[in-house]
Specification:
The chain is built from 4 helices and no strands. The chain has about 90 residues and is mostly helical. The longest helix has 22 residues, at about 65-90. The chain is globular, with a radius of gyration of 13 Å.
């Protein structure tokens, strides 16, 4: 997959993770828009792929339509979104 495919995968994985884990995100306008979702999605895709290859002994295929690639990207995005909310959550309470 090329870099454009990874960006598209990250955007979609971040949007799916945001859909599966709704709620208020910290970060204001930038953190909750397409930019924030894309960054979390792309980073989550890399984290999910690394976890899958390192500990689950299932290397990620280089095909855009591979189910394991999507599952790893969405799972990594969910993990990153939870960590983002824990670290930068509402600290004014």
């Amino acid at each position: 997959m090329g870099i454009i495919s990874w960006i598209i995968l990250g955007l979609l994985a971040g949007a799916i993770a945001k859909f599966l884990l709704p709620g208020r995100d910290p970060g204001g306008f930038i953190g909750t828009t397409v930019i924030g979702t894309t960054v979390i999605g792309i980073a989550g895709a890399f984290i999910g792929g690394w976890i899958s290859a390192r500990w689950l002994d299932h290397p990620i295929a280089k095909h855009f339509y591979d189910g394991a690639t999507w599952a790893a990207a969405i799972g990594g995005s969910l993990v990153l979104l939870v960590l983002y909310r824990i670290l930068f959550g509402d600290s004014r309470r």
